[in-house]
Amino acid sequence: MTGSTGAARGEITRWFEDFRPGEDIPLGSRTVTRGEIVAFAAKWDPQPMHLEDAAGDASLLHGLSASGWHTASLLMRLFCDNLLAGSSSLGSPGVDHLEWKKPVHPGDTLTADLVVEDTRVSTSRPRVGFVRGRFVVRNQRGETVMIMDSTLMMGRRGVA
Amino acid sequence: MRYLEDFTPGETLELGSWTFSAEEIVDFARDFDPQPFHLDEEAGKASLFGGLAASGWHVACAWMRLWIDNQNRVMAEAKASGIELPVAGPSPGFDDMRWLRPVIAGQTIRYRTTFTTTRAFASRPGWGVVNSLNEGFDEAGTRVFHFTGHVFMPRRG
Description:
Chain A is of the alpha+beta class. In chain A, 25% of the residues lie in helices and 32% in strands. Chain A starts with 5 loop residues before the first helix and ends in a 5-residue tail after the last strand. In chain B, strand 4 (127-137) and strand 5 (143-154) form a beta hairpin.
């Protein structure tokens, strides 16, 4: 899917050319509340382990836990606020791989990073560059709770 | 849900449809994906999407909701016939999620799951994983979304 994020706001501080392989871009932190976990699950993933303590305790996740889709959505929000908003983003075609590695419980503080792996200019559309990277979400104990490999499409500086 | 042994490769489940209202698109985007083309009709029209477009995560979450609704329906029907089905385990993640076309306000997407492979775990007795191709189609039947899902399922006995 393609759109245009920063371009619509006219304050672009990060273009395709500003991504460097190996670079680790911090995307900020967010504490997840019980209320948010239950509200998200009630709407999108109404399974007992995301809604009730007793069911969470009895599950493989050892306690009331956030839907994995909630964790992915929270990563998207951190990514929007801390990178996309000031970028030449043109959207993303999708996600190659995502792993939910540890449960997220009420009160956990999630911190996200994007590690840039590879950049290349589109051969068919010269104004577009592809940035391939791994998103890593960690909790307050430094444990990795989620990883996501994805490709971003970014507008190139000075190429209309 | 069901036991690992009860899933047949190639079996298809029609999960039903989800209509993406402008209000729900904006609500989801405000919480999780506040980009102009997900928040504002005019910004959407001016973008390459050509209209107010749902966040890709919103499109994925609608699949999840319909998948759970289907699972609950199957379990309730079995219970009514006196059969107690097991609860599915968590998912370790997914692969190859693609947003092929934008989902624009007012569109209705039909979702379908096809079971592809199952595998019993040697390291975790009593459990295995079911892999599936999950797809969304617009009113014209054009595929707009797909991903390969993985869910842990208990084994019989």
